[in-house]
């Protein structure tokens, strides 16, 4: 798949099919994360892959979904079939870098699209519960969790209407994701050159 196609096709997915995700595909996502640019090439990120059936529900219970919508967390039968937990190892880098994490995560999300998978990055996580549940080492901060599965919805992006950045459902229950207009994000330069 062409890279620009993957960038445009990627949307946060919150409805998944019950089909399990192949372990190889999850591994490919982490391999893509590994190639991301990292400040001073320190690479403080580590990952845990969760695909075991008995862990899926307990991990799901530690995640919060779709803050702008009521009742849009995936119902049983539509929940993620895997997760990748994103960790920042403080023994490698004291103050974990959010930019390092963001770049690695986007690589994972695009690698998922290229393999016909859907993802949702979850920042709203019960970190204490996840730490205990998965045995996350003490030196690792839990940055976020990438929920993964085969998509069972097709959200669309659209030019931002009027003044709301909030995603919403249309009458057919399709999720719409407003993106700010190019003319609002691309500012003209105002150069002041020394004489
Ligand atoms: C740092 C970060 C944290 C996020 N946390 C959550 C979350 O906890 N729950 C959720 O449902 N979506 C979460 N999202 C997904 C955003 O809601 C989503 O990216 C945004 O609405 C734009 O939609 P799009 O990803 O389809 O472009 C998060 C995204 C980012 C970048």
Radius of gyration: 18 Å
Number of domains: 1
Structural class: alpha+beta
Instruction: State the helical fraction.
Output: 25-40%
| Main sheet strand line-up | 1-2-4-3
What portion of residues belong to β-strands?
15-25%
From the N-terminal CA to the C-terminal CA, the straight-line distance is: 49 Å
The CATH superfamily bears the name NADH Oxidase
Report the principal-axis shape: globular
The CATH topology: NADH Oxidase
Please identify the top-level CATH class.
Alpha Beta
Query: In CATH terms, what is the architecture?
Result: 3-Layer(aba) Sandwich
Following the backbone from N to C, one meets helices and strands in this order, namely HHEHEHEHEEEEH
User: Helix tally?
Assistant: 6
Q: Give the strand tally.
A: 7
Residue-averaged pLDDT: 96
* Main sheet overview: 4 strands, antiparallel
Low-confidence stretches: none
Ligand catalogue = flavin mononucleotide
Strand-helix topology:
Blueprint (H helix, E strand, L loop, with lengths): L2 H7 L13 H12 L10 E6 L2 H8 L21 E8 L8 H17 L3 E5 L4 H8 L5 E10 L6 E4 L8 E2 L5 E5 L2 H4 L10
Parallel strand pairs: 5-7
Antiparallel strand pairs: 1-2, 2-4, 3-4, 6-7
Helix pairs in contact: 1-4, 2-4
The site of flavin mononucleotide (FMN) has 14 residues, from strand 3.
């Amino acid at each position: 798949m062409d890279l620009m196609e993957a960038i445009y096709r990627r949307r946060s997915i919150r409805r998944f099919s019950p089909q399990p995700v192949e372990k190889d595909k999850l591994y490919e996502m982490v391999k893509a994360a590994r190639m991301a640019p990292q400040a001073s090439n320190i690479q403080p990120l580590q990952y845990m892959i969760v695909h075991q059936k008995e862990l899926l529900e307990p991990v799901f219970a530690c995640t919060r979904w779709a803050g702008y919508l009521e009742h849009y967390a995936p119902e049983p039968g539509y929940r993620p079939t895997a997760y990748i937990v994103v960790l920042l190892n403080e023994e490698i880098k004291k103050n974990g870098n959010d930019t390092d994490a963001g770049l690695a995560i986007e690589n994972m999300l695009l690698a998922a699209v290229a393999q016909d998978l859907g993802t949702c990055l979850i920042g709203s996580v019960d970190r204490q519960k996840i730490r205990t549940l998965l045995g996350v080492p003490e030196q690792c901060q839990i940055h976020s969790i990438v929920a993964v599965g085969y998509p069972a919805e097709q959200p669309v992006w659209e030019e931002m209407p009027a003044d709301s950045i909030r995603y919403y459902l249309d009458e057919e229950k399709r999720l719409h994701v407003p993106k700010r207009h190019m003319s609002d994000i691309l500012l003209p330069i105002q150069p002041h050159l020394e004489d």
